[in-house]
């Protein structure tokens, strides 16, 4: 990565946000007491393996007495050493055979729970793809094709999950239904704007307020024509998800362990310590990445006139409507659009990255987390004969920042509270 005068501050704020949401920090005070029966841990998501490791340590007594059973399903390359937990790595954002095995193992474990057992579900972002249990009449290929179409459409994560919940035997409350009437406790690290439990990991342990009709409406809104098997499934009343008041949730509890808002607050404190006045634009921002970037560039330029050192902070989940054939992700596209909108304005520096360590990309664990941009970005691009507008049009933000050496590559962070963006604004002339 190229050297930037404020790179240290930008990365420090990102690392602070990530640290606030680490499983080892946010989980221990939330674990329920060991009930005396078995503890059946089902951890799923990009933080799944790390969450499972913390649970192993916490319930050492149950482990020693042979009353501990655990499964962790996480993204390929996101595993960590586990002594008492079965680990399955699976595909994200598009499910694969590992996703099928993960969902099958989770449903089997939940279904085997007895009246005296505790089913402890450790949930984090990515679970929707990592645990895939197609409803009757669907294949994995059907779900893969639909997932790819939804991801390219520009649909929000809530809209995508609405569809996926109605095509799954795991999502939309069905894991809780499999475990009933056993006690179910869910501890979740939220990666969705608004932190709605039914949206995090597609809500496998909570009632689903959306309907089959809602799912069909999403496909219509984005002009997605499903295959015949998907269309039939979305018209089959048997695939409606359990709703509030269903007996499946009589013994189910839910607690949020970490959120984007908490991570932004931690970053704000770090910004103050580094001499910036933090301004949090929101923890649940959604919309096209390039549109958010334009709006934030305008705010940064306006605030710069006030003569203060300011850190603009925001979270949420930006989206990208894919029209080109390049590579990248919402945070990289945001950074590229921001650089274009700022047009080399001096004294403004920014970082945009996904807190899980992977922003779009190929699905590999070493995909970029995001990118850094500053007042020299466009000048350096011109020297390298790179036209930023062309890269943006082709959705190739990764190619642009790779050529400049400005990609942020962190590897798996073992947590996920979604997008983290910060713009550092210095007074004019500094």
UniProtKB/TrEMBL annotation:
Superkingdom of the organism of origin: Bacteria
Any Pfam family: MOFRL
InterPro entries: GK-like_C_sf, GK_N_sf, MOFRL, MOFRL_assoc_dom, MOFRL_protein
Lineage of origin: Bacteria, Pseudomonadati, Pseudomonadota, Alphaproteobacteria, Hyphomicrobiales
Protein name from the UniProt record: Glycerate 2-kinase
Molecular function terms, GO-annotated: glycerate kinase activity
Record carries keyword Protease: no
PANTHER family: GLYCERATE KINASE
Keywords: Kinase, Transferase
Keyword Oxidoreductase applies: no
Residue stretches making up the MOFRL-associated domain: 11-231
Limits of the MOFRL domain: 311-419
GO cellular component terms listed in the entry, alphabetical order: cytoplasm
């Amino acid at each position: 990565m190229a050297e930037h005068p404020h790179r240290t501050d930008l990365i420090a704020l990102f690392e602070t946000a990530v640290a606030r949401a680490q499983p080892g920090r946010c989980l221990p005070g939330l674990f329920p007491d060991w009930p005396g029966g078995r503890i059946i841990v089902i951890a799923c998501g990009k933080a799944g393996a790390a969450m499972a490791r913390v649970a192993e340590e916490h319930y050492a007594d149950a482990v020693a007495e042979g009353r501990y059973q655990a499964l962790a399903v996480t993204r390929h390359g996101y595993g960590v050493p586990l002594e008492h937990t079965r680990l399955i790595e699976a595909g994200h954002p598009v499910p694969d055979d590992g996703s099928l095995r993960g969902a099958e193992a989770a449903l089997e474990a939940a279904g085997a729970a007895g009246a005296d057992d505790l089913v402890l579900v450790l949930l984090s972002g990515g679970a929707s793809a990592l645990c895939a249990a197609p409803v009757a009449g669907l294949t994995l290929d059907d779900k893969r094709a639909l997932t790819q179409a939804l991801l390219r459409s520009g649909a929000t994560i809530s809209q995508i999950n609405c569809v996926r919940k109605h095509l799954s035997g795991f999502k939309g409350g069905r894991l809780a239904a499999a475990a009933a009437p056993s006690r179910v406790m869910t501890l979740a690290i939220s990666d969705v704007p608004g932190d709605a439990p039914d949206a995090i990991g597609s809500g496998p342990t909570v009632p689903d307020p959306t309907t089959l009709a809602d799912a069909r409406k999403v496909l219509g809104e984005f002009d997605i024509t499903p295959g015949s098997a998907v269309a039939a499934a979305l018209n089959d009343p048997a695939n409606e998800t359990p709703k509030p008041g269903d007996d499946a949730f009589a013994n189910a509890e839910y607690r949020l362990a970490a959120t984007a808002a908490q991570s932004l607050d931690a970053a704000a404190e770090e910004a103050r310590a580094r001499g910036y006045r933090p301004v949090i634009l929101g923890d649940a921002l959604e919309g096209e990445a390039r549109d958010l970037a334009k709006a934030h560039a305008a705010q940064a330029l306006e605030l710069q006139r006030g003569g203060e050192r300011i850190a603009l902070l925001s979270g949420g989940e930006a989206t990208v409507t894919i029209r080109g054939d390049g590579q990248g992700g919402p945070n990289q596209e945001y950074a590229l659009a921001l650089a274009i909108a700022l047009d080399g304005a001096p004294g403004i520096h920014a970082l945009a990255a996904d807190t899980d360590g992977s922003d779009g990309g190929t699905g590999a664990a070493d995909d970029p987390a995001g990118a850094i941009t500053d007042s020299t970005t466009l000048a350096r691009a011109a020297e390298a004969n790179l036209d930023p507008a062309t890269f943006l049009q082709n959705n190739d933000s990764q190619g642009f920042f790779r050529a400049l050496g400005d990609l942020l590559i962190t590897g798996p962070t073992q947590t996920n509270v979604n997008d983290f963006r910060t713009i550092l604004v210095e007074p004019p002339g500094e």
